[in-house]
Design brief:
535 residues, alpha/beta, 6-stranded mixed sheet
Length: 535
């Protein structure tokens, strides 16, 4: 059950009448779970004074990609979930009108909160073959976790079609490159959230998949015709809108075919939001901007409040991660008509009514996270190259196990060593020369690869020595590789000589257990890699 508010607010409790209060309801600044007391009190004053409509929670200021990534160390907080619940309760008590609480929980609250259930990335789910029901069940579980934390709105699912292997920001967050698979899984995920009353938001309109730029840091350009967009990028959005969704998050993207030839980002383009999304595609629900602190748009305007005004004027109903609230409210009040303000406010009010009148479901009605992850692992494990016969031969002949990218022993290694594989080397404990010497007279290698990072920057943080060792093994030995991570890591290697590649996608214990069972011939690879690794 949601901890705040303690009772379901009436429509009277939700509705405000003052113009400035209505404008304030459109603002959703960031709230940080692991924040200082000084910053917490500052946000409390903002809630009281400007009647903001909601908050979007992030882990910490250090983890916010735009301003802090790489500059401050992200400190782990084992009590983050308890802190989150406490802060939601504390902030709600400052609000004249109950706050709408949002978070990015694409693969569960674990995306932002320690010690909470984590589910597979979207790219893993894209490997499922006609098991959309599992995505519905997963989203339903995530919705339950959100509900128990006091969250009403999950900014998910991602509807981007990742058809650019070099994409630095979407990649593993997309269900893949097949528009039909993406569309089906988006709808299953959205319905799973709604099934117990958590709001959904498909993102990032009109599609962030075919870009080589991270919109947190710059403005991606997509030079496609309207027909090309309708045939591909827009396909999941069109189908989701037809099926009924709560909201659409608009991306900071330069797409001239959407903006009437102008070079404005879609997120601040009236042609894109009012003209395309609303009039042409028929969406009449809430439109929420992607975070307004992202450099793709935040660096365009020097005058405080101008970005917030432009986002409002373009058609956004919720201004997410707005940083200049007093100035933004004042500028909207000065420039907008009362009719325009009411139009945006009425959509937000309707969404709030839905959020606060949603139902709770007993916890025993949900699939246990470990069991669900185990089933997802069984249904998604995929051959990229080779087949079961090659692996069976390795098991018979015997091979040396080598782990790269991860040193702590996990279920995959523990299940096979030493019962099946008598020798196992940890590459991080040895030099490349020592590894080569130890396997000089060995022909067969089982390679366990766990990339340190899921994002592709800096080669997934695999070192040059590790990359060199992997390529040498592939070239000189008979190798079967099991990957526990982002499959795009395979783009770093020449795989012509490799015996077999099996993609397990996640490092979770359940996925490692299924991978070990697969190596032993007890599980078949049912999944299919949902992306092309080269374009």
């Amino acid at each position: 059950m949601r901890p705040m508010p303690d009772s379901i607010p009436t429509i009277t409790a939700l509705r405000c009448t003052g113009t400035l209060e209505k404008i304030g309801q459109l603002f959703m600044p960031a709230a940080f779970i692991n924040d200082s007391e000084e910053d917490i009190q500052k946000l409390e004053r903002t809630i009281r004074e400007y009647h903001i409509g909601g908050l979007c929670f992030f882990h910490s200021r250090a983890s916010a990609a735009t301003n802090f990534e790489g500059k401050e160390k992200v400190v782990r907080n084992e009590a983050s979930l308890q802190t989150l619940k406490h802060l939601i309760s504390r902030y709600q008590k400052q609000a004249t009108y109950p706050l709408l609480i949002a978070i990015d929980a694409e693969w569960g609250l674990a995306m932002r909160v320690e010690n909470t259930p984590q589910y597979p990335y979207a790219i893993t789910l894209g490997a499922l073959q006609e098991r959309d029901d599992l995505v519905f069940t997963m989203a339903r579980n995530i919705a339950r976790d959100c509900q128990e934390a006091g969250i009403h709105w999950n900014f998910a699912p991602v509807a981007d079609i990742n058809n650019n292997p070099a994409n630095p920001v979407i990649g593993y967050r997309s269900f893949g490159e097949n528009k039909y698979i993406v569309s089906n899984l988006v709808r299953s995920y959205a319905k799973g959230l709604n099934s117990i009353g958590i709001l959904n938001s498909i993102k990032h309109f009109p599609g962030h998949g075919d870009t080589g730029t991270d919109s947190h840091l710059g403005l991606p350009h997509i030079d496609k015709t309207w027909k090309e967009l309708v045939d591909n990028e827009l396909f999941p959005f069109i189908n989701a809108i037809a099926g009924g969704i709560d909201s659409v998050m608009v991306g900071h993207l330069d797409v001239p075919a959407i903006t009437g030839g102008k070079r404005d980002p879609v997120s601040i383009s009236r042609e894109a939001i009012e003209g395309i999304l609303r009039e042409k595609l028929g969406f009449d629900g809430v439109v929420v901007s992607d975070a307004l602190n992202m450099h793709a748009v935040s660096r365009i305007f020097s005058e405080k409040g101008m970005l917030e005004w432009r986002a409002f004027d373009a058609g956004n109903d919720i201004l997410c991660f707005a940083e200049h609230i007093p100035e933004g409210i004042a500028m909207i009040a000065e420039k907008a008509t009362l009719e325009e303000i009411d139009k945006h406010y009425d959509r937000v009010l309707k969404l709030k009514q839905k959020a606060f009148n949603s139902r709770s479901v007993p916890s025993d009605a949900f699939e246990e996270a470990g069991n669900l992850n185990r089933e997802l692992a069984t249904e998604t494990i995929s051959f990229y190259k080779g087949d079961a016969k090659i692996i069976a031969t390795m098991v018979r002949e015997g091979c040396t196990g080598i782990s790269i990218g991860s040193s702590p022993a996990g279920p995959f290694r523990n299940a096979l060593y030493p019962a099946v594989i008598s020798e196992w080397l940890i590459a991080s404990d040895l030099t490349n020369q020592e590894v080569r010497r130890r396997i000089k007279n060995k022909n067969c290698v089982l390679l366990e690869l766990i990339p340190p990072k899921v994002k592709p920057q800096q080669n997934f943080q695999l070192s040059e020595e590790e990359l060199d060792l992997i390529q040498w093994l592939i070239s000189e030995k008979k190798v079967v590789m099991y990957i526990f991570g982002n499959p795009y890591v395979l783009r770093l290697f020449d795989l012509q000589k490799i015996g077999a590649v099996v993609i397990a996608y996640q490092e979770f214990g359940e996925f490692q257990e299924i991978a070990a069972a697969h190596f032993l011939g007890k599980v078949t690879a049912r999944g299919v890699l949902p992306v092309s690794l080269h374009k």
